[in-house]
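[[Encoded backbone]]
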Amino acid sequence: MKVLIIVPAYNEEKNLPVLIPKITAEGWDYIVINDGSTDNSAQMLAEKGFNHLDLTVNAGLAAVTKMGFMYAHDHGYDAALVVDGDGQHPPVYIRNLVDKIEEGYDYVVGSRFIDQKKPMTMRMVGSRLICGAIKLKTGITVTDPTSGMRALGRKTLEDFAENMNFIAEPDALTYVLRRGYKYAETQVNMQERMEGVSYFRSPLKSARYMFTILMSILFLQW
């Protein structure tokens, strides 16, 4: 199976030089999509010869991942897998997700909470709310709807490359479940980001994200 690892990256100049060698050490093809970074990511990617695309403006995560899916589809890959550029998704788990795709699953999520308990933090309260909304909408129980580490098989890759118009990972997951794609989760143990700061460091941005996602799942996905 020909698999492409898609690495969305915004201001990850310190993390990518550590992450990319770990991906290549596992033998995977990859593409870094530099989402209009304002740091020295573009220069670093060019100097190190990493396979990448540079966007002149910040398009946002949903747009960047769609570009990655389009790239994978157009270049004849059988499957694509997203690994965030901040280093939170250890490449050692890529094989676990790909194995599920090879078993015949269409969409596989690397979940932190299959055999581990979800902590009672505000962020995980939000995760529980999203799980409830997805259960209400689809009748299916998921454990980690905000996980960005996910793999797409041939059918979902073609669908997402042509039709994807989702706000974020939970929105895309709801679409997959409602379309009847064969879905699986596999346990991964994620790390804290190596360098830099998360988008969700701001409580206001986190609240806005939660509201937008819930509205999309419950009311926009008819």
Residues 203-220 form the longest helix (18 residues).
